[in-house]
Amino acid sequence: MSTTLETDICILGGGIAGLWLNARLRQQGFQTLLIEHGALGGGQSVKSQGIIHGGTKYALHGSLTTAAEAISGMPARWRACLQGQGELDLRGARLLSQHHYLWSPGSLISNLAGFFASKALRGRVEAVKGEQLPAAFANRAFKGKVYRLDELVLDVPSVLQQLAELGAGSLIADSHAQIERGANGEISSVQVQGGKIRAQRYVLTAGEGNEALLSDWGVSEPRMQRRPLQMVLVKGPALPALYAHCLGNSPKPRLTITTHPCSDGQWCWYLGGELAEQGVGQSADNLITKARNELTELLPWVDLSACQWATLEVNRAEPAQSGLVRPDSAYVQAIGNALIGWPTKLALAPNLSDLVIEQLARQAITPQASVSQHELTPPSVAAPAWESCFR
Ligand code: FAD
């Protein structure tokens, strides 16, 4: 490309945040171009567990935090999209589970007292027994308590695929896109494939990549933090579907299990929670041994003998907080003619889009550009961890 493309909004980074925003802006009449330097969602999004949180996990402390309030409307918003009645049409995306569950394996009821005292959660958490229990608990030896949450679990690659289709024509693959700084310190253009993109506003939704983009642009704020995880993957021919937070002795889940379909017909349990937080820095072998022991203790009737095991190291990238704590909601900051954002949760991608759209309205940015025709190569959707880790 040797020409300059003019557009209203240029988005850098095509994970859940950039793709959702791109689709929303186009729906509102903006011309957009989104530049992705690898595969769509290849940072965190395809490595996420796909849980559309409604805040219940955060209410385990007994009081609803700002995070729980910001996130509480998300399940309904995503459900509407999946049914074709929401802000974006995601009818082609795959729902893995209508519900995520909370599971207390033994006598940890005290942990739950404060949780159920939270008024905002009443009506959104329901105890389940007998035939209503998820298949993985269908065994006479099972003694725990299980609660159904008003939260869903999605197959993230299919969500990304749908969003990519909604953004068809606006997505550009470029591994060397570069921000050009103008004399006034603002972004003057983005260099791609030998040409330039100029926009009214630039939005940085590159996840962990925002840090390098900001540094290339010569801007030091906002600062970013990484919170690392080492996830464990267990793949087998007969693993029962399970989507649940297993409670331990702290307000954080001891284990969060989601179940994902693999292209070879097997299923993969993807294990997060404290196991993955405490697994950072451990050898993969040690962590796998710990995970195997946990599962054997919690679900001794599940046959793991034919399973394959793997781990995955991945960082959560977020705006810096004091003490590496989790930020409360989606985050967007305006710097010159750019907006820098991190959703902080996959579930909060709609919230991030709201914040960007509010900022554009506040800055009186309206659709101006005509359609930019180009023949630049579009990016593909990244392969999920359960396809790439067992090699
Ligand atoms: P990303 O998905 O990382 O996307 C950023 C994109 O920008 C990438 O595609 C990358 O290739 C691209 N990029 C990077 N640099 C550049 C550049 N210079 N130019 C152009 N493009 C660039 N949240 C939930 O709500 N529910 C969950 O169950 C959940 N589970 C999680 C499990 C794990 C193991 C992890 C790590 C996170 C989880 N999260 C979950 C959090 C969630 O995944 C993230 O908050 C969310 O995916 C971040 O989306 P993003 O679009 O900001 O970033």
TrEMBL record:
Bilayer-crossing residues are none
Q: Which residues form the FAD dependent oxidoreductase domain?
A: 8-300
A Pfam family that the UniProt record links to this protein:
DAO
- Any GO MF annotation of the entry: oxidoreductase activity
Alphabetized Gene3D superfamilies for the sequence: D-Amino Acid Oxidase, subunit A, domain 2 (3.30.9.10), FAD/NAD(P)-binding domain (3.50.50.60)
Tell me if Oxidoreductase is a UniProt keyword of this record. Answer: yes
Superkingdom of origin organism: Bacteria
Q: Which InterPro entries match?
A: FAD-dep_OxRdtase, FAD/NAD-bd_sf
Q: Which UniProt keywords apply?
A: Oxidoreductase
Signal sequence, renumbered to the chain? none
Indicate what this protein is called per its UniProt record. Answer: FAD-dependent oxidoreductase
